[in-house]
Design brief:
Elements: H1 18-31, E1 37-38, H2 50-62, H3 73-87, E2 96-99, H4 101-111, E3 119-123, H5 129-136, E4 140-144, H6 155-161, E5 166-172, H7 184-200, E6 205-209, H8 224-227, E7 235-240, E8 253-257, H9 259-270, H10 278-289, H11 294-313, E9 327-328, H12 343-354, E10 356-357, E11 359-360, E12 370-373, H13 378-396
Parallel strand pairs: 1-10, 3-4, 3-5, 5-6, 6-7
Antiparallel strand pairs: 2-8, 7-8, 9-12, 11-12
Helix pairs in contact: 2-10, 3-10, 4-5, 4-9, 6-7, 11-13
The site of pyridoxal-5'-phosphate has 14 residues, from helix 4.
Length: 397
């Protein structure tokens, strides 16, 4: 008898990652022999620093591939050292953990805090996975659509979004997809609102996703936890090495926060992945304890590319100057409404006709925009932007 598998109903609550979907489409066209340029994926085009690779190679030769824990003592201490050094924050071993990418920790950070009908406040444009994961756990995403041109949310917008049902606020800077970086005063203003909100809403907790913290070009990075350490008992800080150490394929993320929250995450890891690969943990220890001077060169390179992209887009589509990460997020609304009804139609046609992959803004909660990742070669940027300009000129006619 034939049988067609249908997934459990909760699987319908979550959509596949839009960025990965566009990238898969771009890769399919590439496999057909087309000269595709993909600006769709958020991945450094750099090599993982050699000292990290060597630590993994050395570990592999020990032949010690045993079960461990999410963050064995040497790894926990490396994570603790990072937060001390960078943010002046002190954590115990019970307050840190690690997982298979920052994504796994975002997944369980949300999964261990959000219950049915809990509201989760998320500023747009947001990383595609946040609302999907919230939906999966029965929560209700409450999106703040910023009105400021630089796409930062204001204290008033945050205040208006928090209700007695709010369980979680997710804060991400530098942000994916817009590269938004908040000043210290702006972070302090948001922290003030959160502090006030806890007086009437004692269940309120915060995830601070700082995975792009090493890629800041304008001003400096001020983590919410460092600016408002009094909020730490209700915070989960999520970070990873994907962006800072070009470690996307190795899958390593880490987190710090209140011991009960970390304990709940570890409980879920004990029933799912158990822990990340020990060989990757060895690389992570080397990365977290090791030099970061290579980042100066990377940052110089990214800023140069960012400025090139912004200059090329000038007069073609308005675009705020991102302070960090490796994305620009231009406004394409002037090209919509005629041939292309939506940003998604626009990026799909751009991919089909000009073979350039970008991700539509609606995937990030901001219809009418699109994300361009500039973590790619100068040649790709030059050629891809020329094609985007040609595509836009054809629409205008
Ligand atoms: C904002 C943000 N958070 C978390 C992640 C997760 O990264 P990873 O799972 O590779 O550590 C990403 C990846 O693109 C991201 O953009």
């Amino acid at each position: 008898m034939s049988f067609t598998f249908t997934p459990a109903p909760q699987i319908d609550l979550i959509q596949p990652s839009a960025t990965l979907a566009i990238n898969a489409l771009a890769n399919k066209l590439k496999a057909e022999g087309k000269n595709v340029i993909s600006f769709a994926v958020g991945e450094p085009d750099k090599a993982t620093p050699a000292h990290v690779g060597k630590a993994m190679a050395d570990f592999a030769l020990l032949g010690q591939n045993k079960y461990a824990s999410p963050a064995p003592p040497a790894l926990a201490d490396a994570i603790i050292g990072k937060f001390k050094r960078d943010d002046g924050l002190t954590f115990e071993r019970t307050q840190v953990t690690a997982g298979v990418g920052g994504k796994e920790l975002v997944f369980w950070g949300i999964g261990t805090s959000v219950g049915k009908d809990d509201e989760v406040v998320i500023p747009a444009p947001y990383w595609v996975s946040y609302p999907e994961i919230v939906n999966f756990f029965g929560g209700v995403p409450k999106i703040i659509a910023p009105v400021r041109h630089d796409l930062k949310i204001t204290a008033d917008e945050l205040r208006a979004a928090i209700t007695p049902q709010t369980r979680l606020f997710i804060f991400n800077q530098p942000s994916n997809p817009a590269g938004v970086v908040y000043t210290k005063d702006e972070v302090a203003a948001l922290a003030y609102v959160l502090r006030e909100a806890t007086k009437t809403n004692p269940r309120l907790v915060i995830i601070s996703d700082d995975i792009y913290e090493k890629l800041v070009y304008t001003g400096s990075f001020h983590s919410l936890a460092a600016v408002a350490p009094d909020l730490l008992p209700r915070m989960l800080l999520i970070n990873g090495l994907s962006k800072s150490h070009a470690f996307t394929g190795a899958r390593f993320g880490y987190a710090a926060g209140a011991a009960p929250w970390i304990g709940a995450i570890n409980k879920m890891l004990s029933q799912s992945s158990t822990h990340g690969p020990t060989i990757v943990q060895a690389g992570a220890i080397a990365a977290l304890n090791g030099p970061e001077d290579f980042l100066n060169e990377w940052r110089t390179d990214y800023v140069r590319r960012r400025d090139f992209v912004l200059a090329e887009l000038q007069g073609v589509m308005p675009c705020a100057t991102p302070g960090g990460a490796f994305y620009v997020f231009p406004d394409i609304r002037q090209y919509l409404g005629g041939q292309y009804n939506s940003d998604k139609d626009f990026v799909l046609a751009l991919l089909e006709r000009e073979l350039v992959g970008c991700v539509h803004g609606s995937a990030f909660g901001m219809p009418g925009f699109m994300r361009i990742s500039y973590a790619t070669s100068d040649n790709n940027l030059r050629e891809g932007l020329a094609r985007i300009k040609k595509f836009c000129a054809l629409i205008i006619g």
